[in-house]
TrEMBL record:
This is DNA-binding GntR family transcriptional regulator. Residues 7-74 form the HTH gntR-type domain. It comes from Pseudonocardia parietis. GO terms for molecular function: DNA binding. Keywords: DNA-binding, Transcription, Transcription regulation. The lineage of its organism: Bacteria, Bacillati, Actinomycetota, Actinomycetes, Pseudonocardiales. Gene3D superfamilies: GntR ligand-binding domain-like (1.20.120.530), Winged helix-like DNA-binding domain superfamily/Winged helix DNA-binding domain (1.10.10.10). InterPro entries: GntR_C (IPR011711), TF_FadR/GntR_C (IPR008920), Tscrpt_reg_HTH_GntR (IPR000524), WH-like_DNA-bd_sf (IPR036388), WH_DNA-bd_sf (IPR036390).
């Protein structure tokens, strides 16, 4: 397993297991025996259990009383359900945060955009992307939590495993970085309406590509399409 000094052992284990799901070594629906995984990775059961708890909270694995731990299926229905919630919550949260943020938050966001422009590795981009979006939504630890930010953060995190597939292609990372730069300019200018619209376009651009990769030939989901029309966006798969 590749080693990164900046990550804890639990984080390295979690990243390796995510990679194994993404590249097909751990297929959806497969039962996972933690003792086998511990042996293959050369780690003890304690950090492995912590990694599995984290991954279950993100939706990568599911525990069943009789079947044990299974690799979660990636259903089209779940993709659309979470995507519709994201399209309702995230643009609205971004609009609010764009209006009420302070200068320190703007400085953090500009710094994140500068770091992203260096075209980092996908692993590095994952952390930068997360920090960027939570800052834009006013959902970081720097900001007092509220119901909107908590709920927005929850659904953003739930989409992590689908997002990882999208970033397997370098052009997707570059496209996200371009959206981030535009969003940051609008957000720092405190243009709430324009920020909301650009965030909506960013989200649906990534989601439609993710659906094409995971579920090619799918029919547009009516609920997701209805939310898209709110921003004059036609859902095309």
């Amino acid at each position: 397993m590749q080693s990164f000094d900046t990550r804890t052992l639990v984080e390295r284990i979690a990243d390796e297991l995510r990679s194994q799901v993404i590249d097909g070594r751990l297929e959806p629906g497969r039962r996972v025996r933690q003792e086998d995984i511990a042996g293959r990775l050369g780690v003890s059961r304690t950090p492995l259990r912590e990694a599995f708890r984290q991954l279950e909270s993100e939706g990568w694995f599911t525990s069943h009383p009789r079947q044990g731990v299974l690799v979660s299926a990636m259903s089209y229905e779940e993709v659309c359900e979470i995507a519709a919630a994201r399209m309702v919550l995230e643009p609205a949260a971004a609009r609010v945060a764009a209006v009420v943020h302070d200068d320190e938050a703007a400085g953090r966001l500009r710094e994140l955009v500068e770091q992203t422009s260096a075209t980092p590795e996908v692993h590095d981009f994952d952390g930068l992307n997360r920090a960027f979006h939570l800052e834009v939504y006013g959902a970081t630890d720097h900001t007092p939590p509220n119901e909107l930010s908590r709920t927005t953060r929850h659904y953003w995190e739930r989409f992590t495993r689908y997002r990882r597939y999208y970033w397997r292609a370098e052009e997707h990372v570059s496209l996200s970085a371009e959206y981030h730069a535009r969003i940051a300019d609008l957000w720092c200018a405190r243009d709430g309406a324009a920020t909301e619209a650009e965030v909506a376009r960013h989200i649906i651009s990534a989601i439609t590509d993710q659906i094409r990769v995971l579920h090619p030939g799918s029919t547009p989901d009516p609920a997701l399409a209805a939310v898209c029309r709110r921003y004059d966006i036609e859902l095309r798969l």
